Amino acid sequence: MPEFKAVATDNNRFPINVEAEILEEMNVEVVRAVCKNDEEVVEACRDADVVLNVAAQMQRPVLEKIEKCRVIIRYGVGLDNVDVAAATDCGILIAHVPDFCWDEVADTAMTHILAVTRKIVKTTNDIKAGIWDKNRQKPIHKFKGSRLGLVSFGNIAREVAKRAKAFGFEVVAYDPYLTDSVFRAHEVACVDFDELLTTSDVISAHAPLTPETKGLFGEAQFKKMKKTAYFVNTGRGPVAQNAALYKALKEGWIAGAGLDVMEVEPAPKDEPLLTLDNVTLTPHFASYTEEAYHELQLKVGRQAAQVLRGEWPTYFANPEVKEAYLARGFTMK
């Protein structure tokens, strides 16, 4: 009989395999669930020792009911669907994989930057329609000497900066949570948000979703941008307001946009942004390569195994929980 139980809450979105092999070798029962609401999460995870989570909401009302849970491990970097403070109150460990997909997202951001500014979608559509006329895409400007503004300057944005410099971009960044020494170390100028908006030729958003960043880009921000500027978002969709972005693109406040994420996902069929040819779109797949996903699954499985062996997880998101966790009767090596 299995000694422990692990539940994957989003097996439809991220089917588990590598991590299941790791856990099954430890005599762990692995349950592949598809949880669409809080009630289904509670039902599936009520007696779970480990919860492997992608998108299911792990908020206080749920956390207080999964009383056996030792650890929730989220696939990926962000924790915006997990109430970390509530988990800490409940004595539940939270882990994630903060070094996941840096190269993949940086590559996708640069792909959008290059494709939308070189107007690849528009030219492709023209050629498919039988129109061979480069003059229809004017104006297009060179990258060398253009300014790329990065909103948030975490690990992925730093990788974007490296790539952009190779194309000749001058790179600046806005991140109020970092010291000047971080920017100097990466040879990127630190600017305030207003300067970034008004002077950048391309703005690439990499901010996590927080109460401060939700809706950060609205009409007022897009109006401050250059009419020749482009907006790229490979971070979190709700950082930009769809309606405001559509208006900015439709009315010519900015020149174009490249989006891997959107305010609502999947994008509704009647989403106005889908009607524009000055927008490049990908389906929130910036994190994906076979190699990155394999590594992610390994790190999730190994952290689950660590906790069940009585070890703290490698990527601990709430180390302040240790006392409350130990008070639940668990012992750690």
Task: Report on this structure.
This protein is α/β, with parallel strands linked by helices and 333 residues long. It has two domains: 136 residues, Rossmann fold (3-Layer(aba) Sandwich), CATH 3.40.50; 180 residues, NAD(P)-binding Rossmann-like Domain (Rossmann fold). 35% of the residues lie in helices and 14% in strands. The chain is built from 13 helices and twelve strands. Strand 9, helix 10 and strand 10 form a beta-alpha-beta unit.
* Overall 3D shape: elongated
Largest sheet: 7 strands, parallel
**Physical arrangement of strands within the biggest beta sheet:** 8-7-6-9-10-11-12
Structural class: alpha/beta
Helix content: 25-40%
* The CATH fourth-level homologous superfamily of the largest domain: NAD(P)-binding Rossmann-like Domain
User: Count of helical segments?
Assistant: 13
- The tally of structural domains comes to 2
Number of strands: 12
- The pLDDT mean sits at 96
What's the CATH architecture of the largest domain? 3-Layer(aba) Sandwich
CATH level 1 class label of the largest domain: Alpha Beta
Rg for CA atoms: 22 Å
Task: Bin the strand percentage.
Answer: 5-15%
The CATH topology of the largest domain turns out to be Rossmann fold
Succession of helices and strands: EHEHEHEHEHHEHEHEHEHEHEEHH
List segments where confidence is low: pLDDT < 50 over at least 5 consecutive residues.
none
What gap, in angstroms, lies between the N and C termini?
25 Å
